[in-house]
Amino acid sequence: KMLAREEAVSKDEDIEDVHQMRVATRRLRAALQTVEGVFEPDIIRRYRKGLRRIAQSLGAVRDGDVFLEHLHTHRDTLPEDERPALDTLIATVTTERANARRALLDDLASKRYRAFKREFGEFLSTPGAGALPPPEPGVTQRVRDFAGSAIWRRYELWRAYETVLPNGDDATLHQARIAGKRFRYTLEFFAEVLGERVDTVLDPLIALQECLGDLQDGVTAREHMAALGLADDAGAQAYLATRTGERAPKLAELPRLWDRVDRGTYRRRLFELIVKM
Fold first, then answer.
1. N or C, which end of the chain has less CB nearby within 10 Å?
2. What is the dotted CATH code of the domain comprising 1-131?
3. Which is higher by pLDDT, 231 or 272?
């Protein structure tokens, strides 16, 4: 999926291509982390590092895309005579996004990235490459032998945020979102063996993740604008006030969404999927 989006990303015809390629790198990194007990740790770390490098370049472009999309949507809600006030902010972010895209294209064309793709492709397509010895003599470890503990551990790490999430600061909410993504990607990695009812545990998780994502987008936008030096720009400050106003409703929604992945019914449903593998 990562390679399938690469050519489209280079053409820059649809911002969704950057998003999907970035998601693919994250899912690959999560998958590698899930199976790190099965393969040589140094090999897993090397390939996760290579994926992280390209994900960072994709992320810089994606942040610009998300910011611009929200800016244009917001401008369309304004009266005609107020829309030009956002021109300076939009032009500044557009320039930043163009610079990030050039850096991304340089990374995609680099010898280091081409070498990474070749080596990683060989690793993925070579049966047994980098595998650790069996945990017990004469035993071949199957996916079902470690999938359950991997999934449940991701859920435990995610659920640990229940004591701090409702009133957490921006950094805590962001870390909770990352933990939730890792849990989600682990579920999706094992989706085929978990069966059709995996959606019953994925859907509530995705809804919560989207809320946390909207909150983080607002944080990113505020930090971005602070770095742009537009403190005296009326249009930029009016837009910032709008983003700030969007935060309270999202925070108010969090407890309900969190309860859907924290309640006993959810844990029982998840456990039933695991034991049926």
1. N
2. 1.40.20.10
3. 272
pTM of the model: 0.83
Segment 114-158, tens digit of pLDDT: 999 999 999 999 988 888 887 778 777 777 788 899 999 999 999
Domain positions in the chain: 1-131, 142-277
pLDDT tens for 18-72 read 999 999 999 899 889 888 878 899 999 999 999 999 999 999 999 999 999 999 9
| 3-state secondary structure at position 132 | coil
Asked if residue 1 lies in contact with residue 51, where contact means CB atoms within 8 angstroms, the answer is: no
Helix axes 170-189, 199-228, angle to 10 degrees: 140
Q: Domain 142-277 maps to which CATH number in 1.40.20.10, 2.40.10.340, 3.40.225.10, 2.40.50.140? A: 1.40.20.10
Q: Which residues contact 262 (CB under 8 A, 6 or more apart)?
A: 159, 162
Q: Would you say 173 and 216 are in contact if contact means Cβ atoms under 8 Å apart?
A: yes
